[in-house]
Amino acid sequence: MEVVSGMNLDTFFDQWLYKGGNMVLDGNWKFDEKKGRIEVNLNQVQNDGYLFEMPVELGISYNDKNLEKFKP
Fold it and tell me: Which stretch of DSSP H or E encloses residue 32?
């Protein structure tokens, strides 16, 4: 899998296969009219004391069906 993806997957397997448990996210968002932007907050809230490293991609779907994706 590493050869095909070109990525080092050690962290992935350490977190999801060998460590066990699961990531729990809590989040909210708001539109700041003065700044003309959407503010998103995501937090890991699992109670085992372990923080997962994971890339996150956010998407905003507009009324006209356009989808904008972001990687913070």
Answer: strand 25-32
DSSP secondary structure code for residue 35 in this structure? T
What is the C-alpha separation between 55 and 35, in angstroms, rounded? Answer: 26
| Contact present, 13 and 19 (Cβ < 8 Å) | no
Share of the chain above pLDDT 90, in %: 47
The pTM score is 0.64
Q: Supply 17's token pair.
A: 């296969």
SS3 content of the chain, % helix, strand, coil (to 5): 20, 35, 45
Tokens linked to 26: 């809590």
Identify which of 26, 58, 59 has the alpha carbon closest to the alpha carbon of residue 42: 26
